[in-house]
Design goal:
With 349 residues, the chain is of the alpha/beta class. Helices cover 23% and strands 23% of the residues. The longest helix has 25 residues, at 324-348. The two termini are 39 Å apart. The relative contact order is 0.13. Mean pLDDT is 85; it is low at 188-198 and 223-233.
């Protein structure tokens, strides 16, 4: 099971109370104050971990608490600091603070965990209270007061995981995306001859010899109105927001060129309806399930689709492997170009 969002409560530790104490020894009956400070409370930190791929286990534990600071003691002994808590999350997790009864997804953005070396303090531990020794002065040599530890800090945070991939697969249900992913990688998405086989996103890694690899994300098939939440739509469109390029897969299983053209434009409208950025991503058009047609039919079907769409069309049978190597090479080149363009934008920005 893949969980891509959850809400948890994080709370730092309260600071320990300062101590009221006086030096009392056999020959020092009126010793001065020696109450130590309380220890600081522990903080809660967030860090991305490349080895974690799901929020499932994170969501099972709803409350994450750091340790409390211990109270100060006599003889100027400070209280022990509360233990910090480090929560490890999947790379690519977006963290938002939820305030009041608002929709968790509309919360205040706190951090985007795109770097595994970043450690983000989400709630800070309460400061320990001062002991009475800290209150001693020339005018107050016998202070009988100490400071309470500062309170803890608590937040309700929403975690949203967006899959990080080079290539995102889009198309109608049963367009052949899951079969393609299982063919080129070790991923094993469920495959069957009915719509919405893919109920959750899958990641696969395609090795292109020893020189390169592509991380590919397969999301559930889209239907009309997906960007408005129809079907499994908007829940999963967010997963391809960060992919560098798209493979738009159009099935030829019905041997109906008009239907294939309509299918193509339907998906393109859904991408545009979701966001301009998604609509503008570089993409390759893939004619899938070509094993269901004769070789000469595939050639003429692909040529007609190319002419109708005004785009180069890659023919593919994920079952037989025909066209697979050519498609992966083209996808790798397109990913490289997208990476280079992104680097230029970063340099200019």
């Amino acid at each position: 099971m893949f969980i891509d969002e959850t809400t948890i409560n994080v709370r730092s530790g309260k600071g320990g109370d300062g101590c009221i104490s006086f030096r009392r020894e056999k020959f020092v009956p009126r010793g001065g104050p020696n109450g130590g400070n309380g220890g600081d409370g522990g903080s809660v930190y967030l860090q991305a971990d490349e080895n974690i791929t799901t929020l499932l286990d994170i969501g099972r534990r709803r409350h994450y608490l750091a340790g409390k600071g211990q109270p100060g003691e006599g003889n100027n002994r400070f209280g022990k600091r509360g233990k910090d808590l480090l929560v490890k999350l999947p790379l690519g997790t977006v963290v938002k603070e939820v305030v009041g009864d608002e929709d968790p997804r509309e919360g205040k953005p706190l951090v985007d965990l795109l770097d595994s070396e970043l450690i983000y303090r989400v709630v800070c531990g309460g400061k320990g209270g001062r002991g009475n020794k800290s209150y001693a002065s020339a005018l107050n040599q016998v202070p009988r007061e100490a400071e309470k530890g500062h309170p803890c800090m608590e937040k309700l945070i929403h975690l949203e995981l967006k899959l990080l991939a080079d290539v995102g697969l889009v198309g109608l249900p049963n367009a052949g995306k899951s079969t393609f992913l299982s063919r080129v990688s070790a991923a094993r998405p469920k495959i069957a001859a009915y719509p919405f086989t893919t109920k959750e996103p899958h990641l696969g890694i395609a090795e292109l010899g020893s020189y390169a690899r592509l991380v590919i994300a397969d999301i559930p098939g889209l239907i009309e109105g997906a960007h408005q939440g129809q079907g499994l739509g908007i829940e999963f469109l967010r997963h391809i927001e960060r992919t560098r390029v798209l493979l738009h897969m159009v099935s030829c299983e019905y041997d109906d060129i008009d239907q294939s053209v309509r299918d193509f434009h339907l998906i393109e409208r859904e991408l545009s309806g979701y966001s301009e950025e998604l609509a503008g991503k570089p993409r390759l058009v893939v004619l899938s399930k070509t094993d269901m047609l004769a070789a000469d039919e595939v050639k003429s079907f692909g040529a007609e689709l190319n002419s109708r769409l005004g785009k180069e069309v890659f023919s593919l049978s994920a079952v037989t492997g025909d066209g697979l190597e050519n498609l992966l090479r083209a996808a790798s080149v397109l990913v490289g170009e997208a990476q280079a363009a992104a680097s230029v934008e970063e340099d200019l920005g």
